[in-house]
């Protein structure tokens, strides 16, 4: 890769980082659907993963995770302890290392999953829009599944107490979140990422020809 190409790739990646940070500090990172909010911050991670591959996708996911950790540290709410080790776990005096895992791992896996799904479908006759949509759906859904699964595994009782629900019903609440907000976010990601990635891929091919 030439020096000019490296500079160009760095500039493009920096743009995606800036978009992630912008979404994380403004209401643009969330879409109100009435009873739930669907996040949009995963979309630049997915688009970047499709365009640049899984390594850079993982990097962008890591940036998303760091912004989540920071936001939950400086603007904590009742359940911020599941995303920030600096916020005391509900009912305890200190935070937990597991919060770092929940903040970072699911977000990193957004980029990895999206890139791998897109790559796996590249050998098919599916259009770039459909492949990108599949990447968007899977990348978004894996985030919800891993976040909610991590909360149940590492913070089940504390999270239930903070949300004022019985621990015995937490599994049902987790499943409802995945099938409700999770599927909604995944569908939105599929539509948006499919359209944006398809356009960018066509533009890139046209610029090279």
Structure description:
The chain is mostly helical and 209 residues long. It is 74% helix and 3% strand. The protein contains 6 helices and 2 strands, in the order H-E-E-H-H-H-H-H. The chain has helices at residues 3-25, 42-52, 54-74, 98-121, 128-163, 170-208, and strands at residues 30-32, 37-39. Strands 1-2 form a two-stranded antiparallel sheet. Helix 2 packs antiparallel against helix 5 and helix 4 packs antiparallel against helix 5. The longest helix has 39 residues, at 170-208. It starts with a helix and ends with a helix.
Key features?
209 residues; mainly alpha; two-stranded antiparallel sheet; 74% helix; 3% strand
Distance N terminus to C terminus?
18 Å
Q: Spell out the helices and strands N to C.
A: HEEHHHHH
Largest sheet: 2 strands, antiparallel
Which residues sit in consecutive blocks of at least 5 with pLDDT less than 50?
none
Main β-sheet, spatial strand arrangement: 1-2
Q: Look at the structure and give the mean pLDDT.
A: 91
Share of helix among residues? over 70%
How much strand? under 5%
**Helix count, per DSSP?**
6
Number of strands: 2
What structural class do helix, strand and pairing data support?
A: mainly alpha
User: What is the overall silhouette?
Assistant: globular
Rg, nearest Å: 18 Å
């Amino acid at each position: 890769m030439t020096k000019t190409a490296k500079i160009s790739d760095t500039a493009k990646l920096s743009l995606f980082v800036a978009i992630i940070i912008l979404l994380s500090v403004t209401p643009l990172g969330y879409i109100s659907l009435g009873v739930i909010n669907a996040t949009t911050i995963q979309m630049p991670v997915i688009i970047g993963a499709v365009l640049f591959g899984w390594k850079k996708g993982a990097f962008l996911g890591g940036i998303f995770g760091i912004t989540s950790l920071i936001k939950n540290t400086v603007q904590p709410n009742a359940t911020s302890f599941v995303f920030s080790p600096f916020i005391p776990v509900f009912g305890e005096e200190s935070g937990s290392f597991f919060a770092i895992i929940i903040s970072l791992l699911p977000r990193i896996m957004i980029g990895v999953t999206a890139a791998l799904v897109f790559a796996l479908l590249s050998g098919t006759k599916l259009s770039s829009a459909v492949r990108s949509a599949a990447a968007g759906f899977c990348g978004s859904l894996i985030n919800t599944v891993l976040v909610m699964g991590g909360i149940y595994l590492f913070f089940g009782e504390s999270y239930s107490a903070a949300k004022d629900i019985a621990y015995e019903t937490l599994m049902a609440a987790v499943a409802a979140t995945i099938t409700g907000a999770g599927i909604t976010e995944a569908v939105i990601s599929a539509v948006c990422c499919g359209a944006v990635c398809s356009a960018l891929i066509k533009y890139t091919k046209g610029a090279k020809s």
